[in-house]
Amino acid sequence: MDANHVTLPLWASALAATLIAQVISSFAGMSAPLLGPPLMERAGLPAESIGLVSAMNSAGICWYLACGGPMLAHHGAIRSLQIGLVCIVLGLFVLSQPLGMVGLLGALAVGFGVAPNTPAGSQILNRAAPPRHRTLIFSIKQAGVPFGGMLAGLVVAPLALSHGLATALGCIIALALVAMLAIQPFRRRLDGPGPAPGAGTAWGRALLSPRVLVRSLGSLRAHPSLPLLTALGASYSIVQACLGSFMATYVVTQHAATLAEAGRLVALMQAASLAGRIGLGWLSDRMAGGALQLLTAQALAAALAVLALVTVADHGNWTLPVCVAAAGLCGFGWVGVHMAELARVAPPRMVGEVTSAANLFGFLGSVCGPIAFTVVVRWTGSYTLAFGLAAGQLAVFALATLAMTRRPG
Questions:
Q1: DSSP helix, strand, coil percent of the chain (3-state; round to 5)
Q2: Is residue 301 part of a domain?
Q3: Residue 400 near residue 227 (C-beta atoms within 8 A)
Q4: Overall domain count for the chain
Protein backbone atom coordinates (compact mmCIF):
# COMPACT_ATOMS: atom_id res chain seq x y z
CA MET A 1 0.00 0.00 0.00
CA ASP A 2 1.20 3.54 -0.87
CA ALA A 3 -0.36 6.21 1.34
CA ASN A 4 0.34 8.82 -1.34
CA HIS A 5 -2.20 7.22 -3.71
CA VAL A 6 -4.97 6.18 -1.32
CA THR A 7 -8.18 8.20 -1.21
CA LEU A 8 -8.27 8.54 2.56
CA PRO A 9 -8.68 12.12 3.82
CA LEU A 10 -5.54 13.59 5.33
CA TRP A 11 -6.96 13.38 8.84
CA ALA A 12 -7.74 9.66 8.37
CA SER A 13 -4.19 8.93 7.17
CA ALA A 14 -2.81 10.89 10.11
CA LEU A 15 -5.02 9.06 12.59
CA ALA A 16 -4.21 5.65 11.09
CA ALA A 17 -0.44 6.16 11.24
CA THR A 18 -0.37 7.63 14.74
CA LEU A 19 -2.83 5.06 16.07
CA ILE A 20 -0.78 2.10 14.78
CA ALA A 21 2.35 3.44 16.47
CA GLN A 22 0.47 4.31 19.67
CA VAL A 23 -1.21 0.90 20.03
CA ILE A 24 1.96 -1.11 19.48
CA SER A 25 4.07 1.17 21.69
CA SER A 26 1.52 0.84 24.46
CA PHE A 27 1.32 -2.93 23.99
CA ALA A 28 5.09 -3.17 24.34
CA GLY A 29 5.36 -0.67 27.18
CA MET A 30 2.72 -2.48 29.26
CA SER A 31 4.50 -5.81 28.96
CA ALA A 32 7.02 -5.16 31.74
CA PRO A 33 4.60 -4.17 34.54
CA LEU A 34 2.16 -6.87 33.43
CA LEU A 35 4.91 -9.49 33.71
CA GLY A 36 6.17 -7.92 36.94
CA PRO A 37 6.26 -11.00 39.24
CA PRO A 38 8.12 -13.39 36.87
CA LEU A 39 10.29 -10.60 35.47
CA MET A 40 11.47 -9.56 38.93
CA GLU A 41 11.89 -13.17 40.01
CA ARG A 42 14.16 -13.78 37.03
CA ALA A 43 16.20 -10.72 37.95
CA GLY A 44 16.46 -11.83 41.59
CA LEU A 45 14.57 -8.79 42.90
CA PRO A 46 11.47 -8.48 45.14
CA ALA A 47 8.12 -8.15 43.37
CA GLU A 48 7.61 -4.49 44.27
CA SER A 49 10.84 -3.64 42.42
CA ILE A 50 8.75 -3.55 39.24
CA GLY A 51 8.20 0.07 40.31
CA LEU A 52 11.87 0.73 39.53
CA VAL A 53 11.42 -0.70 36.02
CA SER A 54 8.41 1.55 35.48
CA ALA A 55 10.32 4.52 36.87
CA MET A 56 13.20 3.94 34.44
CA ASN A 57 10.69 3.57 31.63
CA SER A 58 9.25 6.97 32.56
CA ALA A 59 12.78 8.39 32.87
CA GLY A 60 13.40 7.39 29.25
CA ILE A 61 10.21 9.18 28.25
CA CYS A 62 11.32 12.27 30.15
CA TRP A 63 14.68 12.19 28.41
CA TYR A 64 13.09 12.30 24.99
CA LEU A 65 10.49 14.90 25.93
CA ALA A 66 13.21 17.14 27.39
CA CYS A 67 15.76 16.91 24.59
CA GLY A 68 14.15 15.18 21.62
CA GLY A 69 12.70 18.26 19.92
CA PRO A 70 15.63 18.64 17.47
CA MET A 71 15.36 14.94 16.61
CA LEU A 72 11.68 15.41 15.75
CA ALA A 73 12.39 18.55 13.73
CA HIS A 74 15.19 16.89 11.76
CA HIS A 75 13.62 13.50 11.01
CA GLY A 76 9.94 14.40 10.88
CA ALA A 77 7.08 12.91 12.86
CA ILE A 78 6.67 9.53 11.13
CA ARG A 79 10.41 8.81 11.03
CA SER A 80 10.63 9.74 14.74
CA LEU A 81 7.87 7.22 15.48
CA GLN A 82 9.85 4.57 13.59
CA ILE A 83 13.05 5.38 15.49
CA GLY A 84 11.04 5.06 18.69
CA LEU A 85 9.84 1.58 17.73
CA VAL A 86 13.45 0.52 17.11
CA CYS A 87 14.38 1.76 20.59
CA ILE A 88 11.51 -0.29 22.04
CA VAL A 89 12.84 -3.37 20.26
CA LEU A 90 16.33 -2.87 21.68
CA GLY A 91 15.00 -2.17 25.16
CA LEU A 92 12.81 -5.26 25.25
CA PHE A 93 15.73 -7.38 24.09
CA VAL A 94 17.76 -6.17 27.08
CA LEU A 95 14.82 -6.78 29.44
CA SER A 96 14.47 -10.32 28.11
CA GLN A 97 17.97 -11.18 29.35
CA PRO A 98 18.63 -12.22 33.01
CA LEU A 99 20.77 -9.13 33.73
CA GLY A 100 19.46 -8.04 37.12
CA MET A 101 19.65 -4.30 37.70
CA VAL A 102 21.41 -3.84 34.35
CA GLY A 103 18.06 -4.64 32.78
CA LEU A 104 16.89 -1.21 33.90
CA LEU A 105 18.77 0.16 30.89
CA GLY A 106 16.34 -1.76 28.73
CA ALA A 107 13.43 -0.07 30.49
CA LEU A 108 15.09 3.30 29.83
CA ALA A 109 15.29 2.49 26.10
CA VAL A 110 11.66 1.36 25.99
CA GLY A 111 10.58 4.65 27.56
CA PHE A 112 12.67 6.66 25.10
CA GLY A 113 11.01 4.75 22.27
CA VAL A 114 7.47 5.28 23.56
CA ALA A 115 7.95 9.04 24.02
CA PRO A 116 7.81 10.25 20.38
CA ASN A 117 4.13 9.29 20.24
CA THR A 118 3.23 12.39 22.25
CA PRO A 119 4.88 15.27 20.33
CA ALA A 120 4.95 13.56 16.93
CA GLY A 121 1.32 12.49 17.16
CA SER A 122 0.23 15.93 18.32
CA GLN A 123 2.17 17.60 15.51
CA ILE A 124 0.55 15.37 12.87
CA LEU A 125 -2.99 15.55 14.20
CA ASN A 126 -2.94 19.27 14.94
CA ARG A 127 -2.27 19.89 11.23
CA ALA A 128 -4.73 17.31 9.92
CA ALA A 129 -7.70 17.13 12.32
CA PRO A 130 -10.87 19.09 11.43
CA PRO A 131 -11.41 21.73 14.18
CA ARG A 132 -14.98 20.59 14.88
CA HIS A 133 -13.83 17.08 15.85
CA ARG A 134 -10.23 17.67 16.90
CA THR A 135 -10.58 16.67 20.57
CA LEU A 136 -12.39 13.47 19.60
CA ILE A 137 -9.66 12.62 17.06
CA PHE A 138 -6.94 13.33 19.62
CA SER A 139 -8.82 11.15 22.11
CA ILE A 140 -9.20 8.29 19.62
CA LYS A 141 -5.44 8.39 19.04
CA GLN A 142 -4.82 8.46 22.79
CA ALA A 143 -7.28 5.57 23.16
CA GLY A 144 -4.56 3.54 21.46
CA VAL A 145 -2.75 3.55 24.81
CA PRO A 146 -5.40 1.59 26.75
CA PHE A 147 -6.26 -0.49 23.68
CA GLY A 148 -2.65 -1.65 23.47
CA GLY A 149 -2.63 -2.22 27.21
CA MET A 150 -5.88 -4.20 26.98
CA LEU A 151 -4.42 -6.44 24.30
CA ALA A 152 -1.30 -6.91 26.41
CA GLY A 153 -3.43 -7.93 29.39
CA LEU A 154 -5.27 -10.54 27.33
CA VAL A 155 -2.28 -11.94 25.41
CA VAL A 156 1.04 -11.41 27.18
CA ALA A 157 0.45 -13.21 30.47
CA PRO A 158 -1.04 -16.38 28.90
CA LEU A 159 1.78 -16.40 26.35
CA ALA A 160 4.40 -16.10 29.09
CA LEU A 161 2.74 -18.86 31.13
CA SER A 162 2.57 -21.26 28.19
CA HIS A 163 5.85 -20.51 26.40
CA GLY A 164 8.04 -18.65 28.86
CA LEU A 165 9.03 -15.08 29.56
CA ALA A 166 11.68 -14.79 26.83
CA THR A 167 9.31 -16.07 24.14
CA ALA A 168 6.60 -13.61 25.15
CA LEU A 169 8.99 -10.68 24.95
CA GLY A 170 10.36 -11.99 21.64
CA CYS A 171 6.86 -11.94 20.13
CA ILE A 172 6.37 -8.35 21.28
CA ILE A 173 9.69 -7.41 19.66
CA ALA A 174 8.52 -8.91 16.35
CA LEU A 175 5.24 -7.00 16.53
CA ALA A 176 7.08 -3.70 17.07
CA LEU A 177 9.21 -4.35 13.99
CA VAL A 178 6.08 -5.04 11.92
CA ALA A 179 4.53 -1.76 13.12
CA MET A 180 7.68 0.14 12.16
CA LEU A 181 7.31 -1.13 8.59
CA ALA A 182 3.54 -0.63 8.52
CA ILE A 183 3.70 3.15 9.00
CA GLN A 184 6.42 3.69 6.36
CA PRO A 185 3.90 4.22 3.49
CA PHE A 186 2.48 7.25 5.33
CA ARG A 187 5.81 8.99 5.69
CA ARG A 188 5.92 11.09 2.52
CA ARG A 189 2.35 12.35 2.86
CA LEU A 190 2.63 13.25 6.55
CA ASP A 191 6.33 14.17 6.90
CA GLY A 192 7.13 15.78 3.58
CA PRO A 193 10.30 15.17 1.56
CA GLY A 194 12.92 16.15 4.13
CA PRO A 195 13.85 17.94 7.39
CA ALA A 196 11.81 20.89 8.54
CA PRO A 197 13.20 24.31 7.50
CA GLY A 198 15.88 25.41 9.94
CA ALA A 199 16.18 22.00 11.56
CA GLY A 200 19.76 21.31 12.51
CA THR A 201 21.64 18.08 12.02
CA ALA A 202 23.10 18.04 15.53
CA TRP A 203 20.03 16.38 17.02
CA GLY A 204 22.19 13.61 18.54
CA ARG A 205 24.19 16.13 20.60
CA ALA A 206 20.94 17.86 21.55
CA LEU A 207 19.86 14.72 23.43
CA LEU A 208 22.53 15.59 26.01
CA SER A 209 22.20 19.39 25.86
CA PRO A 210 20.92 21.32 28.93
CA ARG A 211 20.19 24.31 26.66
CA VAL A 212 17.66 22.27 24.68
CA LEU A 213 15.95 21.32 27.94
CA VAL A 214 15.78 24.95 29.11
CA ARG A 215 14.41 26.10 25.76
CA SER A 216 11.79 23.37 25.82
CA LEU A 217 10.59 24.27 29.31
CA GLY A 218 10.46 27.93 28.33
CA SER A 219 7.76 27.12 25.79
CA LEU A 220 5.30 26.71 28.67
CA ARG A 221 5.21 30.52 28.97
CA ALA A 222 3.54 30.75 25.56
CA HIS A 223 0.00 30.81 27.04
CA PRO A 224 -1.31 31.71 30.53
CA SER A 225 -3.17 28.41 31.03
CA LEU A 226 -0.22 26.17 30.15
CA PRO A 227 1.35 26.08 33.66
CA LEU A 228 -1.96 25.04 35.26
CA LEU A 229 -2.63 22.42 32.61
CA THR A 230 0.91 21.12 33.01
CA ALA A 231 0.66 20.81 36.78
CA LEU A 232 -2.73 19.08 36.60
CA GLY A 233 -1.31 16.61 34.08
CA ALA A 234 1.64 15.85 36.37
CA SER A 235 -0.69 15.12 39.29
CA TYR A 236 -2.83 12.84 37.13
CA SER A 237 0.29 11.08 35.87
CA ILE A 238 1.30 10.01 39.37
CA VAL A 239 -1.99 8.17 39.83
CA GLN A 240 -1.94 6.71 36.32
CA ALA A 241 1.64 5.48 36.70
CA CYS A 242 0.91 3.80 40.03
CA LEU A 243 -2.18 2.07 38.65
CA GLY A 244 -0.39 0.95 35.51
CA SER A 245 2.76 -0.18 37.31
CA PHE A 246 1.23 -2.00 40.26
CA MET A 247 -2.24 -3.24 39.32
CA ALA A 248 -1.07 -6.70 38.26
CA THR A 249 1.26 -7.08 41.25
CA TYR A 250 -1.42 -5.69 43.61
CA VAL A 251 -4.11 -8.18 42.64
CA VAL A 252 -1.62 -11.08 42.67
CA THR A 253 -0.17 -10.27 46.11
CA GLN A 254 -3.22 -8.78 47.85
CA HIS A 255 -6.14 -10.65 46.24
CA ALA A 256 -4.46 -14.01 45.50
CA ALA A 257 -5.13 -13.66 41.76
CA THR A 258 -3.20 -15.79 39.31
CA LEU A 259 -1.05 -14.08 36.69
CA ALA A 260 -3.67 -14.86 34.02
CA GLU A 261 -6.45 -13.41 36.22
CA ALA A 262 -4.32 -10.34 36.81
CA GLY A 263 -3.89 -9.99 33.05
CA ARG A 264 -7.65 -10.07 32.54
CA LEU A 265 -8.15 -7.42 35.21
CA VAL A 266 -5.50 -5.22 33.61
CA ALA A 267 -7.28 -5.71 30.27
CA LEU A 268 -10.55 -4.65 31.93
CA MET A 269 -8.88 -1.54 33.34
CA GLN A 270 -7.50 -0.65 29.92
CA ALA A 271 -10.85 -1.28 28.21
CA ALA A 272 -12.54 1.09 30.66
CA SER A 273 -9.77 3.60 29.97
CA LEU A 274 -10.40 3.33 26.23
CA ALA A 275 -14.10 4.03 26.70
CA GLY A 276 -13.32 6.92 29.03
CA ARG A 277 -10.89 8.59 26.63
CA ILE A 278 -13.23 8.45 23.66
CA GLY A 279 -16.29 9.43 25.70
CA LEU A 280 -14.59 12.40 27.34
CA GLY A 281 -13.18 13.53 24.00
CA TRP A 282 -16.68 13.52 22.53
CA LEU A 283 -18.02 15.39 25.56
CA SER A 284 -15.23 17.98 25.53
CA ASP A 285 -15.95 18.89 21.89
CA ARG A 286 -19.45 19.83 23.03
CA MET A 287 -18.32 21.88 26.05
CA ALA A 288 -16.92 25.06 24.53
CA GLY A 289 -14.14 26.34 26.79
CA GLY A 290 -14.85 23.69 29.42
CA ALA A 291 -11.84 21.39 29.05
CA LEU A 292 -10.14 22.52 32.27
CA GLN A 293 -13.35 22.18 34.28
CA LEU A 294 -13.89 18.70 32.83
CA LEU A 295 -10.34 17.69 33.72
CA THR A 296 -10.81 18.94 37.29
CA ALA A 297 -14.03 17.02 37.82
CA GLN A 298 -12.41 13.92 36.37
CA ALA A 299 -9.50 14.26 38.82
CA LEU A 300 -11.87 14.15 41.80
CA ALA A 301 -13.63 11.10 40.34
CA ALA A 302 -10.27 9.38 39.79
CA ALA A 303 -9.20 9.94 43.39
CA LEU A 304 -12.46 8.42 44.67
CA ALA A 305 -12.11 5.44 42.32
CA VAL A 306 -8.59 4.64 43.56
CA LEU A 307 -9.71 4.86 47.18
CA ALA A 308 -12.59 2.49 46.41
CA LEU A 309 -10.13 0.03 44.85
CA VAL A 310 -8.23 -0.39 48.12
CA THR A 311 -11.12 -0.12 50.58
CA VAL A 312 -14.13 -1.99 49.17
CA ALA A 313 -12.73 -4.18 46.39
CA ASP A 314 -12.64 -7.29 48.62
CA HIS A 315 -16.31 -7.13 49.67
CA GLY A 316 -17.58 -9.60 47.07
CA ASN A 317 -16.66 -11.44 43.89
CA TRP A 318 -17.92 -8.61 41.68
CA THR A 319 -16.46 -5.64 43.57
CA LEU A 320 -12.84 -6.08 42.49
CA PRO A 321 -13.61 -6.00 38.73
CA VAL A 322 -15.98 -3.05 39.20
CA CYS A 323 -13.38 -1.08 41.17
CA VAL A 324 -10.64 -1.92 38.65
CA ALA A 325 -12.88 -0.73 35.80
CA ALA A 326 -13.73 2.48 37.66
CA ALA A 327 -10.05 3.16 38.26
CA GLY A 328 -9.34 2.69 34.56
CA LEU A 329 -12.24 4.88 33.45
CA CYS A 330 -11.46 7.74 35.80
CA GLY A 331 -7.70 7.42 36.27
CA PHE A 332 -6.75 7.07 32.58
CA GLY A 333 -9.58 8.74 30.66
CA TRP A 334 -8.25 12.30 30.94
CA VAL A 335 -5.29 12.09 28.55
CA GLY A 336 -6.92 12.86 25.20
CA VAL A 337 -8.71 15.94 26.51
CA HIS A 338 -5.49 17.14 28.13
CA MET A 339 -3.43 16.64 24.95
CA ALA A 340 -6.00 18.37 22.75
CA GLU A 341 -6.24 21.35 25.11
CA LEU A 342 -2.44 21.72 25.22
CA ALA A 343 -2.35 21.68 21.41
CA ARG A 344 -5.27 24.14 21.20
CA VAL A 345 -3.72 26.85 23.37
CA ALA A 346 -0.16 26.41 22.07
CA PRO A 347 1.05 28.61 19.19
CA PRO A 348 0.72 26.54 15.98
CA ARG A 349 4.49 26.39 15.38
CA MET A 350 5.15 25.28 18.96
CA VAL A 351 2.66 22.40 19.33
CA GLY A 352 5.33 19.69 19.43
CA GLU A 353 7.54 21.70 21.78
CA VAL A 354 4.71 22.62 24.16
CA THR A 355 3.29 19.11 24.36
CA SER A 356 6.79 17.72 24.96
CA ALA A 357 7.50 20.19 27.76
CA ALA A 358 4.11 19.71 29.45
CA ASN A 359 4.32 15.95 29.23
CA LEU A 360 7.88 16.06 30.57
CA PHE A 361 6.45 17.17 33.90
CA GLY A 362 3.80 14.50 33.62
CA PHE A 363 6.38 11.80 33.14
CA LEU A 364 8.48 13.17 35.97
CA GLY A 365 5.40 12.32 38.02
CA SER A 366 5.46 8.90 36.39
CA VAL A 367 9.06 8.47 37.58
CA CYS A 368 8.56 9.74 41.11
CA GLY A 369 5.16 8.10 41.67
CA PRO A 370 6.23 4.44 41.28
CA ILE A 371 9.46 5.04 43.21
CA ALA A 372 7.57 6.60 46.12
CA PHE A 373 4.96 3.83 45.91
CA THR A 374 7.71 1.19 46.08
CA VAL A 375 9.28 2.87 49.12
CA VAL A 376 5.95 3.14 50.97
CA VAL A 377 5.08 -0.53 50.34
CA ARG A 378 8.56 -1.69 51.31
CA TRP A 379 8.58 0.32 54.55
CA THR A 380 4.97 -0.24 55.61
CA GLY A 381 3.82 -3.31 53.71
CA SER A 382 0.62 -1.43 52.87
CA TYR A 383 -0.66 -1.07 49.32
CA THR A 384 -3.69 0.72 50.79
CA LEU A 385 -1.54 3.52 52.17
CA ALA A 386 0.47 3.83 48.96
CA PHE A 387 -2.60 4.04 46.73
CA GLY A 388 -4.28 6.37 49.25
CA LEU A 389 -1.39 8.83 49.12
CA ALA A 390 -1.47 8.83 45.31
CA ALA A 391 -5.22 9.49 45.29
CA GLY A 392 -4.94 12.12 48.01
CA GLN A 393 -2.47 14.30 46.16
CA LEU A 394 -4.70 14.27 43.07
CA ALA A 395 -7.78 15.23 45.09
CA VAL A 396 -5.94 18.08 46.81
CA PHE A 397 -4.62 19.40 43.53
CA ALA A 398 -8.03 19.14 41.85
CA LEU A 399 -9.62 21.19 44.64
CA ALA A 400 -6.83 23.77 44.41
CA THR A 401 -7.28 23.98 40.63
CA LEU A 402 -11.02 24.43 41.07
CA ALA A 403 -10.43 27.27 43.54
CA MET A 404 -7.94 28.97 41.21
CA THR A 405 -10.21 28.81 38.17
CA ARG A 406 -13.12 30.30 40.13
CA ARG A 407 -11.01 33.08 41.63
CA PRO A 408 -11.94 36.48 40.19
CA GLY A 409 -9.33 37.79 37.72
A1: 85, 0, 15
A2: yes
A3: no
A4: 1
